[in-house]
Amino acid sequence: MAIEHVDIVDGERHEPKGISTASVNTIYKADGNGSGSWQLETNVLSSRVVVKSLSDFPTPVAGIITLGSNIEYYLDGSINVGNNVFVMGVNSSIIGSGSAYSVLISSNTGNIFTSSVSFSLSNFALTATTGNVFSCTSSPAEFSSVYINKLTINSCVSVGTFNNWYSLFWDQGAVITCAIGVTFSGICKICIFDLVSFISGYTKAIDLDAATFNTCSFVRCGFSNPSATNHIILAANSGNINSGYVGRIHACTFNASVTNRVLNAQSNDIRWNYEDNHNLTSSTRNAQGYMHTQTTTTITTINTPTKINGTSNWVAAHEDQFIINSSGRATYIGIRPIEVMCLFNVSGTSASGSATYNFYIAKNSTTIIASKTRRSFTSTSISSPATCMAIVTLQTNDYVELYVENTDNTTGFVSEVLNFAIGEA
Which of 27, 184, 223, 286 would disulfide-bridge 423, Cβ 3.0–4.6 Å? Predict the structure, then answer.
C-alpha cells in the first residue's frame, strides 16, 4: 500500500529531516557532509503590504506616516496621501509596477520623505507639486543609504537634501519639473546617478558644492532645462572629491543654452574625469614646454646620458594635470594612471668641434631606450631639430625629462631651441 510522503514519520524520511517541526521562515541549509539543519532565513523583508489606499499605510500621527522597518509597501494603483508625509523605517521600501500605474500623490508643502536610516524607492511615480521630496540627514558612521530605481518625479518644489549621507544610488528615472534639484552637504561618501534625467523648471539640478565624497559618478544622465543657472554645481578646485579618489561625469547630455553647465568644472581637474559628454569639454591631461635660451650641458663621461641643463630657463606653455618646473621636469599630478605620447624636438650645437649625440626621454631619471635619437652637431652652425619620442605610462608624481649623451668625446652640448609636448596616447 502506497504511503503519502507527508504521512511518513520523521525518522523514516530521507534528508532533509525535521520538516514537520521546522519553524516558519526557516530553510534547510546543507553542511556539505550529506546532512544539514533548519535555519532562519536572513536578509528578507518582514512582510509586504499591498497599498490600495491611504488606509493601508500605517495610521498617520499628526500627519506623519511612520513606515515599518524591513517592510515593503507595494503601490497598487494611484494613492493620494493628502497632507501626510513619511518617516522611513530601517530598510523600508516603497515599490510599484511602473510610473503609469503606481502613483503616489501628495499635497503637502513640506518634506515628503524624511529619514536618517537606509531605505529604497522603486518603480513608481510621485506627484508632489507643492512639496520637497527628500529630507535625509545622518552621519557617515551610520552607513545610511538610499537606493532609488525607476522613480519618476512628476513635479515638486525641490527634489530635496541629503546631509552627511553615506550613499545614494539613483538608477534610472526622471524629474519632470522642479524648481530646485538635489542638494548634498556635509561628509558624504557615495553618490551615483545612472540614466536619470532632469527635464524642466530647475535653476540647478544637482548641487554638490557643500559636500565631500569618495565616489561621485554621473553616467548617461540628461539635463534639459535651457533656462537653468547650472545643471550641476561642483566645489572649486575638485574640492568635492577626497584625496586619492576621482569623480566622474560620463556620457551625459547638457542643454547648451546654459553657460555654466557644470559650475567650477575645468578640463584639467585632478579629481574629476569628464568624458564622452554632449556640450561639456572632456578632461585633458597634457603639457607643453620650451627652452629657447642658449644653455650648455656639461658632459663628463662619454656614452653616459646626462640630464639637459635647464638652469631655470624652461618655460611652461601649457599644464593640464602636469607641473613643469624651470629645469625642464614635467611631473604628472593626476590621480588616474595614464598612457601618454612624449615628443621632444632638440636643436643646438656642440660646445666645440663636432660630435655625435644621442638624446633620450627619461622617466623618473631612467632613460627610455625606445626614445633614443642620434644627431651629429658642429660648433659653427645650428642643426635642424632632432626628434625623440616615447609612449610612457605615468602614475601620480611620475615625471619625464630630456637627457643627452656624447658618443664621441666629452664635449658639451649647447641647446638653442628645445620644445616638448605630452599628450594622452
Answer: 286
Q: Residue 142: which pLDDT band, with cuts at 50, 70 and 90? A: confident
Q: Of 207, 240, 275, at which residue does a domain stop?
A: 275
- Could you tell me if residue 356 is inside a domain? yes
On whether both 376 and 412 belong to a single domain, the answer is yes
8 Å CB contact between 265 and 234: yes
> Residue 209: what are its φ and ψ, rounded to 5°?
-55, -35
Phi, psi of 24 (to 5 degrees): -65, 145
What is the per-residue pLDDT across 205-219, written as a single tens digit (0 to 9) for each? 999 999 999 999 999
Range(s) of the domain holding residue 132 = 48-275
The number of distinct structural domains making up the chain is 3
State the Cα–Cα distance between residues 346 and 374, nearest whole angstrom: 11
Span between the terminal Cα atoms of the chain, in Å:
80
Residue 312's pLDDT is what? Answer: 87
